[in-house]
Specification:
The chain has 187 residues and is mostly helical. 57% of the residues lie in helices and 3% in strands. It has a two-stranded antiparallel sheet. Helix 1 runs parallel beside helix 6, helix 3 runs parallel beside helix 5 and helix 3 packs antiparallel against helix 6. The longest helix is centred in the last third of the chain and has 27 residues. It is globular, with a radius of gyration of 19 Å. The relative contact order is 0.16.
Length: 187
């Protein structure tokens, strides 16, 4: 497998993990912030949709087929891409993410890794880049946020990440206690 295909496969895998964290949850649970930064599952999906359209579309002169209100009005710089408005349903944001991923896939499939791109919001002396750099960035961003989603999902209902079945409930409880006891030695 070539490098581009391998990166694309990793990106698709992280995209799937991200969306799987929404499975079986209510609208409320998908939206609610569970850490002081406000991180929430639908906000992560919304954020990643914008990144897919931007880094793997606009940066290569490809105009997305839809306008993102938070980009258009500038509220993206105030964090508006990190949470879902009451008018933005799960179906809408999931669909938006899926459409953005398909749009990004078209860019990945049609360009070489060394294809030139430009990121308008980066400092002028670093705006020029390539598909390879931005594809690596999207693999990183998506995996990073899928990790956040693992933790948020665990806080919602205890559903862990891919290694959750390594131990049974009693085993995880004991593991947690062991870690807690180790930490307590530093009080």
């Amino acid at each position: 497998m070539d490098v581009k295909a391998e990166l694309h496969q990793k990106l698709r895998g992280s995209r799937a993990v991200m969306l799987s964290k929404l499975d079986g949850l209510s609208e409320h649970d998908r939206r609610r912030p569970l850490v002081p930064s406000g991180t929430n599952l639908l906000g992560l999906v919304k954020h990643l949709a914008g990144l897919e359209y931007g880094y793997l579309g606009e940066c290569f002169g490809r105009v997305p087929p839809e306008t993102l209100a938070w980009v258009e009005d500038g509220t993206i710089w105030e964090g508006a891409d990190m949470w879902a408005l009451p008018t933005e349903t799960s179906d809408y944001l999931i669909g938006l993410y899926q459409r953005a991923c398909l749009f990004a896939d078209e860019t990945i499939n049609s360009l070489d890794l060394d294809a030139p791109g430009s990121v308008a919001h980066w400092p002028e002396d670093r705006r020029a880049t390539t598909l390879g750099v931005l594809l690596i960035r999207m693999v990183d961003e998506t995996a990073h946020h899928a990790g956040h989603a693992d933790i948020v999902r665990e806080l919602i209902d205890g559903t862990g990440g891919p290694d959750a079945d390594v131990l049974d409930e009693a085993g995880w409880t004991q593991y947690y206690r062991t870690i807690q006891q180790a930490a307590e030695t530093f009080k």
